[in-house]
């Protein structure tokens, strides 16, 4: 186990918050030159860090503590009625773990997703370089869950990192023309099933922010564990 006290940390200057209008954010980054492996990544996830590309970070805002890390304890998870319907609605789809997502069909699906769902976000406009940097394989732990229909058309990709105790749901992108399928929900449910199959305890969902409507979906997965005052607290 790595001694976390020896890690160098770097903080950004305050910058406009991406989630809360009018707020300033400060982000804490692990030294980009630190030798990261699955063990270190897992320890950092347990204390609230997330991955973006090749960087591990955590909010470190002076006046705000709205970002709360959350994870699903998969053995105790009980899907609600909408989630059960979503799973049944997509029983015709196939799931497969793949090693790479560098084909044109993967990038084109990502670009479509950003252009139709996130034109107001930091990743718009999409570019191939940004896509590769953001969703590249990191430290040998990254897996890609492909979702395809009966005609073998790619409908969604869930990018997830395997930790010692769970899967970290890094990002999911999908065909927004398939609204009826609720592919974002399906992607999380599929990762819960994958974690169970691997004997892992959690699916890490990143940060929940009470005042941010875009984050509301995370509280639909119950029970949910939240990192509060450095302790994981279960919310039923």
From TrEMBL:
The keyword Cytoplasm applies. Its EC number is 2.3.2.29. Residues 15-85 form the N-end aminoacyl transferase N-terminal domain. One of its GO terms (biological process) is ubiquitin-dependent protein catabolic process via the N-end rule pathway. One of its GO terms (molecular function) is leucyl-tRNA--protein transferase activity. Pfam families: ATE_C, ATE_N. It is found in: Cytoplasm. It catalyses: N-terminal L-glutamyl-[protein] + L-leucyl-tRNA(Leu) = N-terminal L-leucyl-L-glutamyl-[protein] + tRNA(Leu) + H(+); N-terminal L-aspartyl-[protein] + L-leucyl-tRNA(Leu) = N-terminal L-leucyl-L-aspartyl-[protein] + tRNA(Leu) + H(+). Residues 105-227 form the N-end rule aminoacyl transferase C-terminal domain. One of its GO terms (cellular component) is cytoplasm. Keywords: Acyltransferase, Cytoplasm, Transferase. The keyword Cytoplasm applies. HAMAP family: Bpt. Belongs to the R-transferase family. Bpt subfamily. Functions in the N-end rule pathway of protein degradation where it conjugates Leu from its aminoacyl-tRNA to the N-termini of proteins containing an N-terminal aspartate or glutamate. This is Aspartate/glutamate leucyltransferase. It comes from Marinimicrobium koreense. The gene is bpt.
């Amino acid at each position: 186990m790595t001694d976390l006290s020896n890690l160098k940390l770097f903080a950004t200057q305050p910058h406009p918050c991406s989630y809360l209008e009018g707020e300033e954010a400060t982000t804490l980054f692990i030294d980009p030159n630190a030798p990261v492996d699955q063990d270190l990544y897992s320890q950092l996830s347990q204390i609230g860090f997330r991955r973006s590309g090749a960087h591990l970070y955590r909010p470190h805002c002076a006046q705000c503590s709205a970002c709360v890390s959350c994870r699903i304890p998969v053995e105790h998870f009980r899907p609600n009625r909408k989630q059960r319907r979503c799973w049944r609605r997509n029983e015709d789809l196939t799931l497969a773990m793949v090693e790479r997502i560098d084909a044109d069909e993967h990038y084109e699906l990502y670009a479509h997703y950003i252009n139709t769902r996130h034109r107001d976000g930091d990743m718009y406009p999409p570019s191939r370089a940004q896509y590769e940097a953001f969703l590249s394989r990191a430290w040998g732990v990254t897996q890609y869950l492909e979702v395809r229909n009966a005609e073998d058309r790619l409908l969604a990709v869930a990018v997830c990192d395997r930790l010692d105790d769970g899967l970290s749901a890094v990002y999911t992108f999908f065909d927004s023309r398939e609204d009826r399928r609720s592919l974002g929900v399906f992607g999380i449910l599929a990762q819960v099933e994958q974690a169970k199959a691997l004997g892992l305890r959690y699916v890490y969902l990143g940060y929940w922010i009470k005042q941010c409507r875009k984050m509301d979906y995370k509280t639909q997965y119950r029970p949910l564990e939240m990192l509060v005052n450095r302790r994981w607290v279960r919310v039923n």
